Amino acid sequence: MPTKLKKRHLMDYGILIPYLILCVFGLVMVYSSTSYDQLVKGLNPMEPVIKQAAFFVISLVLIGIIYKMKTDFLKRKNLSAIAIVVMLALLIFTRFFYNHQVNGAYGWIKLPGMTIQPAEFFKIIVIWFLAVKLAARQKIINEPGIPKRLSMPLLYVFSGIIIIALMPDLGNAAIIMLIAIAMLLASGINFWYSVVVGIGGIIASVGVIKGIALLGNTLGEKINSIPFSHVFERFIVYQDPFEYLYDKGHQLVNGYYAFYNGGLFGRGLGNSIQKKGFLQFPYTDYIFAVVVEELGLIVAILVLALVFYMIVRIFLVGIRSTDPFNSLMSIGIGALFMVQVFVNLGGVLGIIPLTGVTFPFLSQGGSSLLMLSICIGFVLNISAEEKRKKYGISLGS
Fold first, then answer.
1. Is residue 240 a contact partner of residue 217, using CB atoms and an 8 Å limit?
2. How buried is residue 281: exposed, middle or buried, by Cβ count under 10 Å (0-12/13-18/19+)?
3. Rounded to two decimals, what is the model's pTM?
4. CA–CA separation, 126 vs 87, rounded Å?
C-alpha cells in the first residue's frame, strides 16, 4: 500500500454507501407519506421533501467538514466541556423560558422556516463528551465503585437527561440514558457492573412501565388533570390498544393495520391507506409502517438489514480502534443508532410505549437527520484515522 495518500482514499464506503442509500430512500418515503396531506390542505406536495432535501445537502457538507478535521481536535477536554455546558443552557432555555409547545412538549425552538430540537443534538454532544472524559480516565476506570473523577461528567449528562424528561420527551431521555450506560460498560469498567446494570435495567424498565400504567389506570378520568397526562395515556394504551380503538389507541391500532395491509409485497409506492388520515404522524413515528404498507415486508426487511449492516460496521470501527477515544466514540454512535431503531420499532409494534422517536434517516425531521449525519461524519473520520495508523500512511494535501 502507498505510504502517502489523500484522506479521501481512506473513506469507509461500507458506512458511507448505506448512509447515502438510506437518506435517498428516506426522501422518497417523506414525499410519499406527506404528499396526500399536503394536497388535502391545498399546499405544495413537494414542500416537505424539499425541506428534507435541503437538510440532506447541509448534512453532506457537514460530513465533509468533519471528515477533514483531525481527530486530535475532537479530543480537547475544554472544547467538549464547553459544548455540553452550552447544550445544557439551551435545553434549560427551551424547557423553562421558551413557551413553544409541539404535541404537549417543549422540546422545539422555532426559527424562520424551520424548527430545531436541542435534545437531538444533545445525543452527539453526550457521546463526544463521555468519549473524551472516559478515554482520559482509562487508568482509573477499573477502580472499585464509580471513581470520583467520573462523578462530575456523569452529573452533566444526567442533568441533561432530567431536563429532557421534563419537556416531557421520555423517548430521547431513555435513548441518552442507554447510550451513557453502553459507553460506561464499554470503557473498561469492571465486568460485574455489566451484569448488575443489565439485570437491574431490565427489572427497572419493566417496573417503571407497569408502575406508570397501573397508576394511570388507578387515576382513571382524573388522569387528565395531572401534568404530563399524555405520557400516562401512552403507557396505559400500549398494553391493549384495541380497548381504546376509538380514542388514544387509534394510532397504534392503525399502525398494525398498515403492517397487515402491506403483506409481503406491499400495495405499491404511494398507495398507503393508513397515511390518509388514519395515522396522525405517518412521516415521523410511523414512517416504517408506511414503508411496510406500500413496499411490503420483504423491502422493509432489506431496509432493516442495511441499517444493521451499517451499525455493525460502526461497532467494528470502535472494536478495532487502538485509541480509547476513537473506540468509545464509535461504540457510542453505534449504540445511538441501535437504540433509536429499537425504540422507534418497539413503539410502533407495541413492544414498548410509543415515544415519538423518529426512525433513523427515513423519518421527516431536519434536526434528527443533521445529528445522525454528524455522527456518520465522526465515524468516517475515526475509521480513516485508524486505517492511517494501522498501515503507516501519511496524508497528502
1. no
2. middle
3. 0.89
4. 10
